[in-house]
Structure formats: C-alpha cells, structure tokens
Fold this sequence. Notes:
Blueprint: E1 6-11, E2 17-22, H1 29-41, E3 59-62, E4 65-69, E5 85-89, E6 92-95, H2 101-109, H3 139-148, H4 156-163, E7 221-227, E8 249-252, E9 270-272, E10 281-283
Parallel strand pairs: 7-10
Antiparallel strand pairs: 1-2, 3-6, 4-5, 7-8, 8-9
Amino acid sequence: MKKFLVSVVVIWMTGGVYAAEFSDLAVKVADLKAMAAISKGYVAGNGPSAGVPTQPVEWVTINGGKFTMGTDSGEKGFENAKPIHEVAIKTFDMSKTAVTVEQYAECVIKGGCTEPGTGYYCNWGVAGQQLHPINCVDWDQASKYAKFKGGRLPSESEWEYAATSGGKNQKYPWGNDEPTCDKAVMNEGGSGCGTNSTMPVCSKPAGNTAQGLCDMAGNVWQWVQDKYQDSYKVAPTDGSAVEAKGSYRVMRGGSFHNNFVGYLRADYRNYIFPGYRYGTLGFRLAR
Length: 287
C-alpha cells in the first residue's frame, strides 16, 4: 500500500487549533470520529485519547442485608422520608465514584451518549476538569451511560443502603459527625469549600463509606432510578426501584453548592424533572 502524508486540522470550540498527521493511507475512520467528538467537548490537552479514560470506572461490591430506610425525625425537610421501613438489599456493585467527565466522554466519543450541557457550573469542556464529576446531564443521559457501561442507575434504597456504609444506623457516610470540608465537598467558606466549583472525585477520603465509596455526600447530587413519591407508603421492601406514575425522578446526596447540612444526609430525599440539567447534579452507577 502506498503511503503519503495527510494533515488534519481540528478547530476546537474554544478557538484553539490542533494539527495531526497520518502517514498511512489507512487512517482509521473511528480515530477521526473520536477526534471530532473530543473537539466538541474539550479544550486542547483535556480529552482522553480516543475515548480511553485515565481512570476507568471502578466497582465496589456492596454486600446485601436488611436495613431500616427513612427517618422518624420530626425535622423540617424530612417529611417525605417516612414511614421508616425495613428493606432487604441484595448484594450489588456500585461505582466507587460519581461518573467523571472523562469517563462520560468515552461514551460520547463512541457514539453511545449525547453531550452534556455547558455553561453555569458545568464541567464539560472546561480545562482541567476531566476528573471532576460529570454534571449538567439529565436522567435519560445518565441512564444511557449506565447501560453503555453494562450497568444501571441504583435504586433509591440501594443508594441509601450504600450511603450508610451498608445500612448502618448513621446520618452520613462516615458516621454521625456533622459535615465539614474535611469530609465533603460542600458550601463551607463558599461553594465547593471555597473553590466555587465541584472538585475531583475522591478529594475527601475522610468522608468515604466503610466500603470505600467516595462523595456519597456532597460534590454533586446523584440521579437514582426511582420515580419520586411523596412518602414511603408504597415503597418496595426488596430493594427495587419505584416505577409508579410520577413526573419527577429522585436525586440524592447533596452538592458542592449546599450550605444546609441536612441535604448531605443519607436519608434526605430530593427530586426534579428528569429532563433538567444542572451544574449541581451528576450520577453514579450500579450493577
């Protein structure tokens, strides 16, 4: 096969120019597509090579068991976390971290996912944010990525079980001590512990669960599978997700922007329209 020099210039959205040279006629179409996809969401030097993340999804096994879900507290904001009820959770795997920008980019580059939103607090396309949690993705985007990785979104009960270190009687992933920036990416001294941003996943290992899950409180809220109901009156007791009628999906965990520590509690429930994309909202995987 004859060889000749082909020069390709990719003009990045940010205005930068990247030149690539291929010395073989058999330039892979997939490589060109990957380069084009990266150019849509990344600035030069910030994208994984052909969609290979430097830190792939890491799975943690969460051994099953029974736990008491919800709260009987009379505190304001927890009215929808009642009645308390026992749930039997089967053993499952959960991703150690929230899905990162570079992990999500793999799916975009390979054609399995659409691009996240950009702009206010969004991490897509921001230099140096590839190890931050992906945010500004709606529920469908999160679900499609989960399927791309051979997983799914966790059920709400699985999420709470994992966030309490396997169903322990505690408020937070680390125990009952109130949240601080030593343990969570939160609004203390300003959003994101004064950074006005998310932080790279696993930046606060002191706040990990006993099983090693990172950022189950703070950094970004996390989509779960369930449709929101305003109480646990019809909640399943087998660890499955609620798929009853409803216009909202549940999100859990709190974010870098929250200064009310109650949002970071493992039993706090929040909800939102599934089509919304916010800089404070991301997701993690289960399987």
